[in-house]
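Hi support team,

I submitted a single chain yesterday and got back a structure, but I'm not sure I'm reading the token output correctly. Could someone confirm the output below corresponds to the sequence I sent? I've pasted both exactly as they appear in my results page.

Thanks,
R.
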Amino acid sequence: MLVTNILIVEDHKLFTEALERVLRVALGGGAILCFSQATSVAEGMRLVSAEPDGPFDLAVVDLMLPDGDGTEVVREIKTRRPGTRVLVLSADQDLSRALAAGADETMPKSTGLHEIVASVARLIRAF
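Hi R., thanks for writing in. Yes, this is the structure output for that exact sequence:
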């Protein structure tokens, strides 16, 4: 079975839990999904820096975090392991800086779950 390691950097615990549950149901049939969670830029940076090559296949990153801007995490991921796919999913209206930081895709949080799942599936298949 294919194992996919996913990092979610999001400070709203309920949103993180709901996203993880939806992804497990929608995508878990032919793969094992392993999730790691961070609720701040500092925690996200620590997890990304844990191994020299980075353990994550995909990261879902919010931009508005309690201790800073999630684009820092996006840049760190893309610097350490450029092959890691990054989806920025944020309530912030200006997602252009996320793309400039190296995000593969950006979506507003107001996007429907079906479209978010489709985006995650597309990014997972891309690696």
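A quick pointer for reading it: The beta strands are 2-9, 31-38, 58-61, 64-65, 68-69, 85-90, 105-108. Let us know if anything else looks off.

Best,
Support desk
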